[in-house]
Amino acid sequence: MKKVLIATAAVLSMSVIAVPAFAEAKKGEKIDAKAKFDQHCVACHPKGGNIINPKKGLGKKDLAANGIKTEKDIVAKMRNPGPGMTKFDAKAVPDAEANAIAKYILATYK
Ligand code: HEC
């Protein structure tokens, strides 16, 4: 019984590691911005909202009201966020990924 459990745990942990690696390989260099957004941001920004500060959602109107207009502005927010938001430095989210997420936000949340 114990052996079976250990084997199951081993298989499970392998699949957890293998699945994202497979997804990366399949898409080559292309970044899946939605997946990255879902991974890093969606917990606090579901559907482009903001569960902590509802006035600071990711819709164009909210962004504009807070002086955020371009992809660069969104990346700047990730690198240097306001109160309550996780900081995402270039180690957590490399520039290419950060830019892809920013583009995704501008294209998705109007
Ligand atoms: C732990 C919760 C949390 C996570 C995770 C999070 N945010 Fe935020 N976000 C916030 C909060 C809180 C604010 C408001 C901060 C402030 O007052 O400036 C905010 C503000 C923003 C704003 C400015 C919105 C506006 O209208 O002014 C942007 C853009 C943004 N987040 C992008 C992101 C992106 C992109 C990610 C993922 C890489 C992310 N956030 C992850 C909590 C979070």
TrEMBL record:
- Domain Cytochrome c spans what residues? 23-109
Q: Which domain of life is it from?
A: Bacteria
Q: Which keywords label this protein?
A: Electron transport, Heme, Iron, Metal-binding, Signal, Thylakoid, Transport
Q: Which residues form the signal peptide?
A: 1-23
Per the record, its GO cellular-component terms are: plasma membrane-derived thylakoid lumen
UniProt keyword Electron transport, yes or no: yes
Does the keyword Transport feature in the UniProt annotation? yes
Localization recorded for this chain is:
Cellular thylakoid lumen
What is the predominant subcellular site recorded for this chain?
Answer: other
What name does the UniProt record give this protein? C-type cytochrome
